[in-house]
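Retro notes (design track)

What went well: tokenization of the new backbones is finally stable.
What didn't: we kept losing track of which sequence belonged to which structure.
Fix going forward: every design gets posted as structure first, then sequence, in one message. First example under the new rule, 196 residues:
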């Protein structure tokens, strides 16, 4: 006979069952990887043409840099840190090459991820998405310090108020009023998710 119904059913059903099992494993694994642990520190990162703003709400600290001014994002080592990344204007890319870590900053979307950095040092960061005329100047530094050094830094940089919006003119004014500095090397682990 030309047809073998039992074998045709097996050849059809077996691949579907295998795909469903693989889908189940993928779903469970991705949820475990993307799970956001409870943070000890939160940082709001705002990307804008052509700079960065790092705000530490609990510490009342805001660091802003534009174009040739590289702002410094200071974080304590061995601490679970939640980062809320967003863009003021166009799509930007938050990228730290030494840590092999990258996330998109998009207007209207808050991209959340968790970092836990295990080595002190200073790492170069940059925007990876072409965002206009001064894209190549949109750099920052990520400085990882001990928790004690972070507490001293936060106290020294505490401000009485924070900026809630940035225009190009405001970003230039804000960048001129903000101080930064440093250097070294290290490693990190991260998890993340996106929310609209």
């Amino acid at each position: 006979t030309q047809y073998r119904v039992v074998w045709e059913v097996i050849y059809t059903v077996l691949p579907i069952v295998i795909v469903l099992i693989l889908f189940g494993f993928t779903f469970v694994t991705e949820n475990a990887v993307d799970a956001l642990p409870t943070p000890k520190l939160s940082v709001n990162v705002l990307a804008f043409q052509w700079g960065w703003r790092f705000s530490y709400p609990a510490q009342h600290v805001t660091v802003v840099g534009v174009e040739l001014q590289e702002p410094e994002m200071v974080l304590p080592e061995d601490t679970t840190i939640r980062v809320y990344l967003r863009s003021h204007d166009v799509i930007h890319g938050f990228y730290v090459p030494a840590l092999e870590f990258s996330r998109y900053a998009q207007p209207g979307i808050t991209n959340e991820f968790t970092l836990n950095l295990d080595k002190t040092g200073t790492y170069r960061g940059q925007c990876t998405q072409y965002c206009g005329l001064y894209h190549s100047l949109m750099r920052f530094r990520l400085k990882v310090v001990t928790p004690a050094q972070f507490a001293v830094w936060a106290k020294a940089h505490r401000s009485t108020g924070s900026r809630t919006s940035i225009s190009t003119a405001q970003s230039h004014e804000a960048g001129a009023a903000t101080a930064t500095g440093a250097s070294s090397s290290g490693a990190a682990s991260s998890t993340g998710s996106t929310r609209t």
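Added context from the reviewer: The chain has a mean pLDDT of 78.
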